[in-house]
Amino acid sequence: MSDDVQLPDLNTWQRLFDDQTLWQQSPDAHYFDLQRIADDLLGQGAIDLEQWQLLRAKADDLHKQTPEVNVARELDDPEA
Question: Which residue stretches of 1-80 are H helix?
Answer without folding.
Answer: 10-17, 20-25, 27-44, 49-76
